[in-house]
Amino acid sequence: MNLPLFSYDLLSENAHLMGALLIGVAFGFVLERGGLGNAKKLIGQFLLKDFVVFKVMFTAIVTAMVGLFFLSVLGLINLQLISFPDSYLSAQIIGGLLLGMGFAIAGYCPGTTVVGMATGKLDALLCFLGLFVGTWLFVAAFNVFESLYRDHHLATDKLPELLSLPFGTVVMLIIAVAIGGFYISEKIEGKR
Q1: CA–CA distances in Å: residue 115 to residues 100, 123, 160
Q2: Which residue from 32, 88, 90, 183 has the least number of CB within 10 angstroms?
Q3: Hey, where are the domains in the chain?
């Protein structure tokens, strides 16, 4: 996905790529500062003992959403230029379960794997190699899985369109869900 500012000719292609790199490095820095470069954090999330992963990731989602909302209100970004791939429910459910099991076993997700590698963790490097080999095996055997991969196709709508609500209303609803989730996670952590 391209940064929609690119289509307004406000940024050159090189500046666009540099911006993406800087945003990625900044996000990686935040993940590391939040302790997410450590496999124990993700495992703690699965065991419902440590909700730092939930809090950091939900905060990132809400921050991006609020930023997109205000950039669109100010006319600096055209949300119609942001597209999403179509959904294939069977493949996404099976892939999500496999990826989730991999997270639970390895203690890393793709993003935290890179963060762990950047800080010199050998287990993160091994996880990255596993991600690479798994991806390669899937591509090599795609003909076998293609019918399942394309099963239960849904054209993807953005959440405001799906709910038939204005973007600002959806932003407020998701912020409310985040606050509720943070409150509940704090209560669970406080009981331990």
Answers
A1: 18, 12, 32
A2: 183
A3: 10-82+165-192, 84-156
